[in-house]
Amino acid sequence: MPRGRYSLHDPHDHTLLAEERFHCAPGPSGWRYVSQLTAPSGDHAGSVDLALDDLGRPLRLELHAASWQVRGAALDGVTWVRTDPAGTQATEGNVRAHAFTGTSPAFLIATARLLRLTPSEPATRVRLVAFTDPVLAPRTVDQSWALIAREAHATDNGPLTVDEYQVTALDTGEQHTVHLSGDVVLAAPGVELEHLESPPSTFD
């Protein structure tokens, strides 16, 4: 069960936005990721609880940020309920999309798990519902993912397989690179792995 800490930065000016302390693990039904976010001031900034099934689909998502809350799951595409800070209003949404995304590194792992790409495959298009900070506003985004390299690196605990993905935003054409090892993000725009207590889990 990997445990560790990511720092989350603005990908444009590298301003520190939050620290995300996480633990995650494969389980009998799929994979689960749980984290708590802390603002640079030291205040609690939110939380993430994401559970996937064996196929990488979101069984359950619960996000908290700035007193806003989102609960969602894969149902007729993806369905979610967003609740305001006062708790007096809840709005439901549904989009014919494959999964969710957001600022947490959990979503990069989840998308890679859903697509299950191999280095020989062409880029694959995926539609996601992104929840944007700080009020978890939903926005539908289209991306293409390609696994452009898979390399094994020698470590004290045995070989570590690192996958390099090229991710393209289809509305702007902007591209970026994501490096994953199992269920840990090693590097991505706005994401730095600061500490890892145990090796990444491997998926079958």
Topology:
Elements: E1 3-9, E2 16-27, E3 30-38, E4 44-53, E5 58-65, E6 68-74, E7 78-83, E8 90-95, E9 99-101, H1 106-115, E10 124-132, E11 137-155, E12 158-169, E13 175-181, E14 184-188, E15 191-196
Structural account:
The protein is mostly beta strands and 204 residues long. The chain contains one helix and 15 strands; from the N terminus they run βββββββββαββββββ. Strands 8-7-6-5-4-3-2-1-15-14-13-12-11-10-9 form a 15-stranded mixed sheet, with helices on one face.
What structural class do helix, strand and pairing data support? mainly beta
What is the overall shape? Answer: globular
Straight-line N-to-C gap? 15 Å
Number of helices: 1
Helix content: under 10%
Number of strands: 15
Strand order across the biggest sheet?
A: 8-7-6-5-4-3-2-1-15-14-13-12-11-10-9
The major pleated sheet works out as: 15 strands, mixed
* Cα-atom radius of gyration: 16 Å
Protein name: Glycolipid-binding domain-containing protein
How is this structure best summarized?
By secondary structure, the protein is mostly beta strands. It has one helix at residues 106-115; strands spanning 3-9, 16-27, 30-38, 44-53, 58-65, 68-74, 78-83, 90-95, 99-101, 124-132, 137-155, 158-169, 175-181, 184-188, 191-196.
Name its key features.
204 residues; mainly beta; 5% helix; Glycolipid-binding domain-containing protein
